[in-house]
Amino acid sequence: MENKNHQKSGIIILAAGNSSRLGRPKQLLKHKESTLLKNTILEALKIQNSFLIVVTGANHDIIEKGINLPEIKLSFNSEWEKGMSSSIVKGITELLFLNPDCEQCIISVCDQPFLTSSIFENLISVSKKTGKGIAASAYAETLGTPALFHQKYFEELLELKGKEGAKKLIKKYTDDVVSVPFEKGNIDIDTEEDYTQLISFDN
Description:
Helix content is 33%, strand content 24%.
């Protein structure tokens, strides 16, 4: 693994939820000859000059067994039940510990099956080109994950509480946000019905 001081971008994949509406760990659902989570990880690993943190929580033992990749840092969030904010805080804390000079990070989830490395690359390049501190994915008339945040926002990300997600900052700093189209970004897997539809896509 290359020297982390040269790795300007951190990618944090949030995979700590207990998939309550699905009734089984969505992270491990089969997708593209792999699983939803592993597919997201493999796409993220294609990004140069970056390092990857996966935040686990519920079902972390079986999820971590299913990953087993030396290139990534697994970070267990013991407070996952407090909501997404706790996983973002855990991920940013780990990021700053691993690489205090990191210039930006992308926060991603693990249940957007159509996420590819080009989405991550576009967030980085559009942010750089426009000079905007936040680059968020645009789909279904909203802005959401994956979203890139410049290091100047790390402190506020660390202050998120409860069910708050990174969208709070996207709404607060609209003048510093650029949107990046993510076709099919609105498709995520929360229920068995969602997964059944995805399987028909895969086939």
